[in-house]
Amino acid sequence: MSVKLPLMCQAQTIYLCMGSACHQRRGYDLLPLLEALVCCHGLEGRVQLKGTFCLEACQQGRSLKFGDRVFTGVDEQSLGGIFEREILPHCRPD
Fold first, then answer.
1. What is the pTM of this model?
2. 3-state secondary structure of 59
């Protein structure tokens, strides 16, 4: 008799740029906001937050990457909208 185990959903990853230009623009200030959004939507274990060196969009402001998309010019005011429109729909349970 074989037992089927449930497939574990692979966590999605949001990469927050920590390169020198984003660092100078205080990109790290976005991290606690991202953590709060993940927690608020109950996505612990479904979404990983990772720093990355450079997303090569230095001239366009602070950046983050999700999937194949790089979001530039991210600030405290736009982060929630980007998360809810562009990230959240890909992270909800099936």
1. 0.83
2. helix
